[in-house]
Amino acid sequence: MIITPVVVDIYHGDRVDSFRTAKAAGLRGVIHKATTGATGRDSAYKDRRPLAAAAGLLWGAYHWGTHADVAKQVSNFMSWAAPDDKTLVALDYEETKNNQMTLEQAREFLQRLGEKLGRKPVIYGGGLLKKDLGGGADNFFGSHRLWLAQFGDSPVVQASWSNFWLWQYTDGEAGPDKKTVSGIPGNSQGHLDCDHFLGSTDQLATEWAS
Question: According to CATH, what is the number of the domain 7-207?
Answer without folding.
Answer: 3.20.20.80
